[in-house]
């Protein structure tokens, strides 16, 4: 995140902070040694925008001040998740989601609105819990590295499947533990309100639920070296994957459903609750005895085409009451 923070400071936040908390007088460039709380990987001043004049306003909070970094990262993360959520979930909904599923008897009244509202309630708290990890990374408390060849090309390539398998296994167990009766109704049940989810349900969860399932993404670069550019790419990918598997698609017969935990698997999880806890692969579900293979007869669209309209309306009315 230091890459993102540097760019944000360079082009936006330096000016914002200077206006919000201006120094008592215009300052020339300052050095890392002159700044406060300087133990950080995020430099006091980028060489790209080095101040040379004496008439540029500065904030009395330098770039590497931990308070400024925390607030800046909170705002950046919040804006980022909003942009990602509405752009990717919106695109998935408009171009991929089968609108016929909205006729399903277990599709709630105003469900899309409710999913979005649930997500918007979760984001501020999820952001608050996540930002300390980003601050720690920016201040050098992780093993992210910048040079592509620092650990060799082979490790760079292998770190991608390593990251995915590590987080897949960890999320499987976090997810499965959340289904324990002692935790389920308090933490995970809000996400299972959406029996027939849309892409907007991807982030419609209790904040603690979302944070718990995101922890492996932050723990990995603390334990293992990971290129910082790769980390940003992978972090974006996993968020897009979470959106994609919530489109209730039940495409089967491709052969990949034996390996990849895709939308069909996660649709079954929302329908039946006790299967397919994995995130990317079926590996942990197979080892844990929770794998359920998606079959054509599992398609929720069959409940629409094979159920009389009056029965659907009756069931839907009962659900709403």
TrEMBL record:
GO MF term (any one): delta7-sterol 5(6)-desaturase activity
Ranges for region Disordered: 295-321
Organism name: Malassezia psittaci
One GO cellular component term: membrane
TM helices/strands, residue ranges: 71-96, 153-174, 219-241
Subcellular location: Membrane
Enzyme Commission number(s): 1.14.19.20
Presence of the UniProt keyword rRNA-binding in the record: no
Keyword Isomerase in annotation: no
Record-annotated Fatty acid hydroxylase domain positions: 162-289
Keywords linked to the UniProt accession: Membrane, Oxidoreductase, Transmembrane, Transmembrane helix
Name this protein carries in UniProt: Delta(7)-sterol 5(6)-desaturase
